[in-house]
User: Fold these one by one.
Assistant:
Number 1:
Amino acid sequence: MCGIVGISATVNVNQLLFDALTVLQHRGQDAAGMVTLGGGNFYLRKDNGLVRDVFRTRHMKKLVGHMGIAHVRYPTAGTSSSAEAQPFYVNSPYGIALAHNGNLTNAESIKQELFKTDLRHINTRSDSEILLNVFAHELVQSGKLQPKPEDFFKAVRRVHERCEGGYAVVAMINGHGIIGFRDPYGIRPLIFGKRESEKGTEYMIASESVALSASGFEVIRDVEPGEAVFIDSENQLHTFQCVQGVKHPCMFEYVYLARPDSIVDGIPVYQAHQRMGQILANKILREWPEHDIDVVMPIPDTSRTSALEIATRLGLPYREGFVKNRYIGRTFIMPGQEVREKSVRQKLSAIHQEFEGKNVLLVDDSIVRGTTCQQIIEMARDSGAKSVYFSSAAPAIRYPNVYGIDMPTSEELIAYGLTDKEIETEIGADRLIFQDLEDLKKIVSSLNPQITDFDCSVFDGKYIAGGIDSEYLRRLAASRNEETRANERSDSIMDLHNDEELA
Ligand SMILES: O=P(O)(O)OC[C@H]1O[C@H](OP(=O)(O)OP(=O)(O)O)[C@H](O)[C@@H]1O
Ligand SMILES: NC(=O)CC[C@H](N)C(=O)O
Ligand SMILES: [Mg+2]
């Protein structure tokens, strides 16, 4: 997952883009970037780091223009080199900058096609640069100096025909406008809205609704799967269904990725967390009516809401036994297992008296690599807990993600190949309770009954897009396992895109 945003306004957009990125920071902590369009020129600043570190006053001053796109990155393809930070840029046709959230599952074969048939060079190993070049190539086919919205929509349709996987995209076309589109399954989120100014209507397209509301934009609606929305240079909105879509939003957005104050595809994430807690409490009461839990505790941050609901439904006290250091980011999306392990201890510390002699039920939203729960359970025991029970508001994650979440190998997942009982032993819990997948689907869908299908591949191994087979998963695992990535973490690729002046 990454965070993307595009704005077409009547004032300079640099500060608006910066504000939106800070609100989307939870979607990517590795790199950030922004391109603005002012006086016919693109201005680009991108680098590794958090939003507040990448954009200093000296950069902001130069990022002028009323239109721009921006990105926060959490890599799922290529390397963590700053050259692969986004947006990416191509000069032909027109000059296009693009930012992408997701992952292309046929990146390798398109790269070959781009080189051999379209005569295009890809300079990095990022799938986003590939996506940009497919879009650019297809746009060239219109052969027009003054393209119309239909020409952009036609190019998006060709992108859908050529690219497979999960993708939500914003792109800025010099002299023409900003376009946003989403893959035909709508796996990754994208929403757009507007606000009125004295000089006219302004538009924002972003990964999550919270980016819009934070800057006073009113949500119009989610971009539909396979649809494109285009805001031209006069700030006129055009929308078009480029290919038929079937909505399958990623279930993990509701479990962990999206902010609780966002509404994704009409489903309020906070309410989804609440219901996950309620239904999990029902399961506990059903399967373990004689439980001896004294107290319910969240593992901050994401599980707070569901833990509170569990406590309420069980009629037990809710206690915050772990204090979170607010200056440490999300550990799951940090690169490298060593960093993640160290960060859990730095991030969370236990309040001893809350554990002393008690049977505690710890609640987390999910168990991925098991880094958090293993350490937390140990900390709870060290703090004097009598018994440590653990519950996860999501089912066990046993399968890799191929659509934009960095879980590339099943071997890295603690639940891989293990029964629930074996996971319980592995993480050192006295009892472990997972949410059932059918329950999860039912409650999330009940918040927007129009959505009946989700991408639940990390839970059930069913991949809806991209013809994923075991050979693909084997190659993905080989290219993105911890060892390969540890050797790649360097800035060995020269960045062709960065303006010296802005660096
Ligand atoms: O099993 P693991 O590999 O440890 O991954 C799962 C954990 O990672 C996430 O927390 P994170 O610290 O990223 O973010 P949060 O503060 O939003 O909960 C998630 O909420 C779980 O706590
Ligand atoms: N997490 C994402 O959405 C990643 C986008 C893109 N695949 C990259 O690696 O930069
Ligand atoms: Mg967490």
Number 2:
Amino acid sequence: MAEKIVIALGGNAILQPKQEATYENQYENVRISTEIISKIVKNGHTVIVTHGNGPQVGNILRQNEEAKDVVPPFPLDVCSAESQGFIGYMMEQTLKNELTKLGLNREVVSLLTQTEVDPNDVAFEDPSKPIGVFYSEEEAKLLAEEKGWIVKEDAGRGWRRVVASPEPKSILSSETIKRLTDDEVIVIAAGGGGIPVMREKDGRLKGVEAVIDKDRSAFRLAEESKADVLMILTDVNNVFVNYGKPDQKALGSITLEEAKIYADEGQFSAGSMGPKMEAAMKFAELGGRAIICSLGQADLAVEGKAGTQITKVQ
Ligand SMILES: Nc1ncnc2c1ncn2[C@@H]1O[C@H](COP(=O)(O)OP(=O)(O)O)[C@@H](O)[C@H]1O
Ligand SMILES: NC(=O)OP(=O)(O)O
């Protein structure tokens, strides 16, 4: 059965933590991702692709700060737009090339997308979104002192700069995205969670200095574009219970009720699997099928043969 699938690509799909952030490295990673996505399209499904931008937006912000005496720096929402632009460019180009290789002549378009947030969101008081590269605790604390950054430990992987990450209220171009997908166009949208914007009292839009979590905005995108499937791709084949312990167990097909029990037990870490499971559970609550799996098993997972699959009822 042909389905409309929102595919959210994790940060690792664009840049692995130990890789240098060169254009070439990121382009090749994106090409590998789009090679797999093109197989899903070949199997007859409609896809909307979204992606993270944590490492990239952090690096762009840093470039702005380091060059501030030569070129005036841009605010974080503009850095977010820049990262969405360059990742979208790589994705649009590689996806088109991979589809052509498979003999598919499909239109691919990358939309610079704004995401509305609430300016009074409590998240502004407690920055939590890691961006940029990883540091040792010592380096991070030194940078925090020198540059006035807020730094935090990132899910056991090292220390990173953090910025505010408000909840996405709505994806501003979701109606257009829906129309394009109804017309069989493959859309890349809301990259990096979308550019955070707020509405002034008179209704005008204004940029907000923050970075939205892409798993949360992927849920909004799936909800608003009326997708059948929300698929979150990361670097593990499945979600696990007792992750990292000798008795860890991979989750296959589970119900929303089971997922809620595991979430209440604290099985999903706040900075990594937590937001993915939160998005997946919200989507399952709406009656859709949510999948969390690795990039390499994405096409199998769509057919229900891999990954963690969450639905309201089995
Ligand atoms: N319960 C769990 N099951 C599987 N992976 C988990 C779990 N808890 C934490 N993780 C970690 O979550 C990571 C994926 O989250 P993250 O690195 O933020 O994803 P991405 O950057 O791909 O969006 C995995 O590499 C794994 O180390
Ligand atoms: N915006 C965002 O969530 O990016 P990452 O997935 O790269 O952290």
